[in-house]
Amino acid sequence: MISVELVVSLKIPDVTALTAANAIRRRLGYEEALESLDRAEYYLLELDVGDRAEAEELARDLAENTNLFVNPNKHAYEIRLPEDRSPDARDDGAWIVNVLVTNPEDASAEGIVAALRDRHGYASVVEAKTGLLWTMRLNAEDEKQAREIAEDITVTRSQSHGLLMNPHFQEYEVWMGA
User: Residue 178 pLDDT more than 80?
Assistant: First the structure.
C-alpha cells in the first residue's frame, strides 16, 4: 500500500484565501507575522500498487482522466508522497507552515473511493482522506513560535482567535515545510 497526496489549487487568485488572509491580518492582529496564505483541496489516496512510480502514474491518471479532482480549465495539481515533504521549514527567512483541516464526519472520501472503484474501474484505490490544506508563510523567531501562530490562526476560539477551522466538528494537523 502506497500513500499519495493530490493537492489541487486554483490557477487564478483564490479570493477565499485572500479574504481569509486579510481578516487574519486585520482582525486577528497578524499584520507583521502573516506574509501569505494559500489554500488547496487535499486528497490522501491509499493505493494498492507495486511501487512509487506506479502510484504516481495512477494518481496522475486519476487527476487527469476523472472529473472527481481536477477541472483542467481552472485547477493546477501536484502529486507527492507524504515522505517527500520537504523538512526545510524556512524560505527566504519566513517559516512555511501547513495546516490540514479535515472533517471526520465527512463522507465525501468514501464517495470518491466508491466512484473510482465502481464507476471508473480503479480497483487499486483502497481509501481516501479529504481536507483543506492551508499553507502559511509566517515571520516568527523560531519554529515553535511559527507553530503557535499557525495554530492560533487556525483554531476558532473567539472572534479574535482563529478563523480556518471549527473545533466543534473539524480536526487539524500541522506540519512544517513545503
Answer: no
